[in-house]
C-alpha cells in the first residue's frame, strides 16, 4: 500500500494520480501500476492538445498562474497582421511550443528561439497536436500529416478526402490513433465543417476507418476518455462515441430539440464519467439575443444527465474542474454571441457539474468592434489580402476557458483582452487594481493583448502559460 501511495505521488505530475490510487483499492495495485507507469511515460507532454492531455482533457491545468510574467511573444517578422494563427500552441515535455499558422508550423523552445518551420501539404486552419515524438495536423486540402517534433522533418502525409472545411479544428491522437475531420460539409445551417471523421494510424499515417456524421463537425475536437474510444460533438450539439481502433459507433445522442441549430463550440471531458457540451438550442445559430445550451452526457451510455439553457449563445468549449471559493466540481462556459454587429454580450458562467445549477456568473461590458468585427480583424484585413492569406480570423465571442490550479478561470475574448476571473469577491485574496471589475459578486481582471482569440488559444505547462491571439503568441513564465 505504501508503495502504491508513493507511486501515486510520483505519477501525479503526469496527472495520473487519481487513476493510480483507484487501482490500488482493488488489490491488484502493482500489476496495474506498472502498466499505468509505462503508459504515463509514453505520453508525458503537458499540453499536447487544445483541451489538455488525454485522458484528462478537462480544459484544466494543475499550474497556478500567480507569479507568471510576460517573457516573450512572437508574430510574423513583417508585422502582426502579416499572418493568421490557427488556435493556440501545444507544449511538449521539453517545454517547446508548436503553433500552426497560415504560413505553416513554427516550433519554439521555451525562451522563444525558433527551432524549425514546416510547410504543410496545403493551408491549415487547424491547431496541431502532439503524440509521442510526432506533431500531427491536417489541412484544407484534405491531408493529414505528421512531423518529427525535434527536427521538423515530415514523417508521413495521407490524403483523406478532396477537401476539408475552413473551420479551425483541434484534431488529436491517443492509443495510437489520430482522429481528424475531412470532406467539407454543405448543410443548410452552415456551409463548412466536415462530414467525415477519420481514424489514422499515428505512426504510419495509414487510414484505419471513416465515419459519416449526422450533421457536420465544426472545429472537430476529439476527446479520449482512455477506454479505447473517442467522443466528439457535431455543430448541432449531437454527441458521438466511437471505438477508437475500428470507428464502430458505441453510441450517439442527437438532442432532438436542437438539430437545426449551429454552434462552433464543442465538448470537454469531466473527471466524473460525464462529458459536457456547449452548443445552441432550437434553430439558434449563435447570434446576439439568442439562447445557448449546456448539456452533460454519461460517457458509458450517452444518456443526457442534465441540461441548462444559457441566456446568451454557447459558442465555445467548457472547462471542468474545481474553481476558487466554491466547493462542487464546476463546469465553466463562456457564453457570448458571434461577431457581425455592435453591442455584443458575453459572460463567464460557472455551473455545478453534477446538476447544472449556477454557481456564479460574470457579465462583461458589451463589445463593439470596428465594423462589428473582432479586435484585429478589420485592422488586419487589408494586409492579409496583400499577403494572399485568409483576410479575417472571425473567431467566436470567446476562446475556450481554462481553469488553473488555484481555481481561477482564464479566457481570451473577441475584444482583444485576456480575462482572469478570480471567482467570488469574498474569497479573492489579492489586491484590487486598475483593470479589475466586480460583477454579480465575482471579480475579474482584464489583460489587453491586442487581437481576438480562437477556441484553442490557451496552453499550460510547468512554469508556462501561453495564449495565442489570431496573430501573436504570448508566453508568460515564472
Ligand atoms: C533556446 O535556444 C537558444 C538558441 O539555441 C538557446 O540560446 C537557449 O538557451 C534555448 N533555451 C532553452 C530554454 O533551451
Ligand atoms: C444509462 O445508464 C443510466 C444509469 O445506469 C440509466 O439510468 C439509463 O437508462 C441508461 N441509458 C441507456 C440508454 O441505457
Ligand atoms: C489596463 O487597460 C488599459 C486599456 O484598456 C491598458 O492601456 C493598460 O495597460 C492596462 N493596465 C494593465 C496593468 O494591464
What is the average per-residue confidence, as pLDDT, rounded to a whole number? 92
Distinct small-molecule ligands in the complex: 2-acetamido-2-deoxy-beta-D-glucopyranose
Low-pLDDT residue intervals, each spanning 5 or more residues: 1-41
The CATH topology label of the largest domain is Methylamine Dehydrogenase, Chain H
**What is the radius of gyration computed over CA atoms, rounded to a whole number of angstroms?**
21 Å
InterPro entries: PQQ_b-propeller_rpt, PQQ_rpt_dom, Quinoprotein_ADH-like_sf, WD40/YVTN_repeat-like_dom_sf
Keywords: Signal
Protein name: Pyrrolo-quinoline quinone repeat domain-containing protein
Model description:
Residues 104-256 form the Pyrrolo-quinoline quinone repeat domain. Keywords: Signal. With 478 residues, the protein is mainly beta. The protein has helices spanning 2-12, 17-25, 29-42, 377-387; strands at residues 69-74, 85-91, 97-101, 104-108, 114-118, 129-131, 134-138, 143-148, 154-159, 172-174, 177-187, 190-201, 207-217, 229-233, 239-243, 249-253, 267-269, 274-280, 292-298, 304-310, 319-321, 330-333, 347-352, 358-363, 402-403, 409-412, 417-424, 436-439, 442-448, 458-461, 464-468, 473-477. The two termini are 36 Å apart. The chain is globular. The strands form eight sheets. A five-stranded antiparallel sheet has the order 25-26-27-29-28, with no helix packed on it. The chain has two domains: 1-41, no CATH class; 42-477, YVTN repeat-like/Quinoprotein amine dehydrogenase (Methylamine Dehydrogenase, Chain H). Helix 1 packs antiparallel against helix 2 and helix 2 (17-25) packs antiparallel against helix 3. The chain is built from four helices and 32 strands. The structure holds 2-acetamido-2-deoxy-beta-D-glucopyranose (3 copies). Residues 298, 301, 303 line the site of one 2-acetamido-2-deoxy-beta-D-glucopyranose.
Amino acid at each position: 500500500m505504501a508503495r502504491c501511495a508513493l507511486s501515486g505521488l510520483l505519477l501525479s505530475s503526469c496527472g495520473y494520480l487519481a487513476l493510480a490510487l483507484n487501482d490500488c483499492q482493488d488489490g491488484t495495485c502493482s500489476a496495474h501500476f506498472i502498466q499505468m507507469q509505462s503508459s504515463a511515460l509514453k505520453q508525458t507532454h503537458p499540453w499536447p492538445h487544445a483541451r489538455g492531455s488525454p485522458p484528462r482533457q478537462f480544459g484544466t491545468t494543475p499550474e497556478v498562474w500567480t507569479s507568471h510574467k510576460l517573457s516573450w511573444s512572437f508574430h510574423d517578422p513583417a508585422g502582426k497582421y502579416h499572418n493568421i494563427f490557427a488556435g493556440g500552441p501545444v507544449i511538449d515535455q521539453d517545454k517547446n511550443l508548436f503553433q500552426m499558422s497560415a504560413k505553416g508550423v513554427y516550433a519554439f523552445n521555451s525562451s522563444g528561439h525558433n527551432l524549425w518551420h514546416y510547410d504543410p501539404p496545403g493551408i491549415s486552419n487547424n491547431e496541431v497536436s502532439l503524440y509521442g515524438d510526432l506533431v500531427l495536423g491536417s489541412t484544407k486540402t484534405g491531408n493529414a500529416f505528421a512531423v518529427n517534433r525535434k527536427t521538423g522533418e515530415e514523417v508521413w502525409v495521407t490524403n483523406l478526402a478532396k477537401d476539408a472545411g475552413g473551420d479551425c479544428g483541434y484534431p488529436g491522437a491517443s492509443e495510437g490513433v489520430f482522429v481528424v475531420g475531412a470532406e467539407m460539409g454543405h448543410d443548410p445551417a452552415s456551409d463548412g465543417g466536415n462530414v467525415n471523421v477519420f481514424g489514422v494510424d499515428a505512426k504510419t499515417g495509414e487510414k484505419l476507418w471513416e465515419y459519416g456524421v449526422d450533421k457536420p463537425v465544426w472545429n472537430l475536437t476529439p476527446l479520449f476518455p482512455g477506454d479505447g474510444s473517442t467522443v466528439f460533438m457535431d455543430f448541432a450539439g449531437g454527441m458521438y462515441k466511437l471505438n477508437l481502433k475500428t470507428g464502430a459507433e458505441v453510441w450517439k445522442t442527437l438532442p432532438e430539440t436542437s438539430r437545426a441549430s449551429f454552434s462552433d463550440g464543442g465538448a470537454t471531458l469531466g473527471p466524473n464519467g460525464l462529458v459536457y457540451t456547449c452548443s445552441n438550442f432550437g434553430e439558434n445559430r449563435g447570434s446576439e439575443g439568442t439562447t445557448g445550451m449546456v448539456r452533460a452526457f454519461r460517457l458509458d451510455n450517452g444518456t443526457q444527465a442534465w441540461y441548462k439553457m444559457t441566456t446568451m449563445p454557447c459558442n465555445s468549449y467548457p472547462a471542468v474542474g474545481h474553481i476558487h471559493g466554491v466547493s462542487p466540481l464546476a463546469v465553466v462556459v463562456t457564453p457570448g454571441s458571434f461577431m457581425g454587429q455592435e453591442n455584443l454580450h458575453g459572460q463567464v458562467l460557472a455551473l455545478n457539474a453534477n446538476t447544472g445549477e449556477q454557481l456564479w456568473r460574470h457579465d462583461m461590458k458589451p463589445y463593439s468592434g470596428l465594423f462589428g468585427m473582432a479586435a484585429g480583424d478589420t485592422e488586419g484585413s487589408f494586409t492579409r489580402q496583400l499577403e494572399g492569406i485568409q483576410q479575417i480570423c472571425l473567431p467566436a465571442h470567446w476562446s475556450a476557458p481554462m481553469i488553473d490550479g488555484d481555481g481561477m478561470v482564464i479566457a481570451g475574448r473577441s475584444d482583444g483582452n485576456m480575462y482572469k476571473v478570480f471567482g467570488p469577491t469574498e474569497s479573492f485574496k489579492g489586491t484590487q487594481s486598475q483593470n479589475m471589475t466586480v460583477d454579480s459578486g465575482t471579480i475579474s481582471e482584464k489583460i489587453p493583448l491586442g487581437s481576438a482569440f480562437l477556441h484553442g488559444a490557451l496552453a499550460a505547462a510547468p512554469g508556462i502559460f501561453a495564449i495565442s491571439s489570431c496573430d501573436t503568441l504570448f508566453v508568460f513564465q515564472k
